[in-house]
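Figure 6 in text form: structure in, sequence out.
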């Protein structure tokens, strides 16, 4: 479980999150909606200690992220807006192996994790291909595989569709749907809600750093219209 307890955070004295409290259960698919600048990235970066609260606390499975960020990172995988920022190796296989290698695992376990992660994103057997030569959608899927190789309980994706065409976006969404069905928690921030609402168990909408809607998708769509977050009809 990921738990926010009265989290307050400011950039240069400008408050972004104020007294934010949330509980996200294992296995939930949570969609974070809201306009640019509403605080989605800031909130999500607290889930594995990339940012730490000015006051309040974030807990992953009962342990404070600020006190034990390494534990949080082993449970909460992050996929950033531009996957190119997160690659550390030239080939698919080497990149996905990087996280498990840093855990000091045996080669056989590393290979097994890479195989499972690549299968989960439909890139099995493509270990030796160069990342620079892949399409945007394939790169996004490699970034997801890199996070999955750490065997996280939750995957956090911040605007993962940026720069993807519709088929690539669809392929990433299909992978997220399959991961969610297998029990991985998904926290997805996007301002583009097409085809995403129906996958979510829960929609959290932010506005000016506050959670203004927290509801199942159908109910959230109605409530969102009241808070000026534009969404397509389900
Ligand atoms: P979203 O992900 O919803 O677009 P962000 O969390 O990125 O929202 O931004 C929330 C607010 O925090 C915005 O007002 C933004 O300008 C501000 N902000 C984000 N990152 C920084 C930063 N590194 N320095 C200063 N202000 C920032």
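Output sequence:
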């Amino acid at each position: 479980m990921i738990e926010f307890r009265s989290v307050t955070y400011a950039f240069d004295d400008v408050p972004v999150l104020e007294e934010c409290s949330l509980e996200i259960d294992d296995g939930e698919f949570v969609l974070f909606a809201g306009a640019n600048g509403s605080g989605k990235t800031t909130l999500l970066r607290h889930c594995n200690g990339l940012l730490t609260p000015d006051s309040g606390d974030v807990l992953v499975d009962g342990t404070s992220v600020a006190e034990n960020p390494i534990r949080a990172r082993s449970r909460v995988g992050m996929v950033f807006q531009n996957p190119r920022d997160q690659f550390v190796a030239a080939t698919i296989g080497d990149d996905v192996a990087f996280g498990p290698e840093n855990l000091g695992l045996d080669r056989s376990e590393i290979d097994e994790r890479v195989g499972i992660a690549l299968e989960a994103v439909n890139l099995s057997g493509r270990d030796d291909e160069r990342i620079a030569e892949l399409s945007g959608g394939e790169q996004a899927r490699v970034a997801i595989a890199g996070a999955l190789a750490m065997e996280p309980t939750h995957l956090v994706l911040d605007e993962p569709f940026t720069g993807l065409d519709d088929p690539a976006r669809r392929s990433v969404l299909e992978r997220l749907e399959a991961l969610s069905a297998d029990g991985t928690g998904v926290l997805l921030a996007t301002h583009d809600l097409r085809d995403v609402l129906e996958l979510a168990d829960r929609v959290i909408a932010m506005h000016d750093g506050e959670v203004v809607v927290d509801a199942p998708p159908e109910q959230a769509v109605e409530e969102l219209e009241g808070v000026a977050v534009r969404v397509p009809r389900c």
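Caption detail: The chain has a mean pLDDT of 91.
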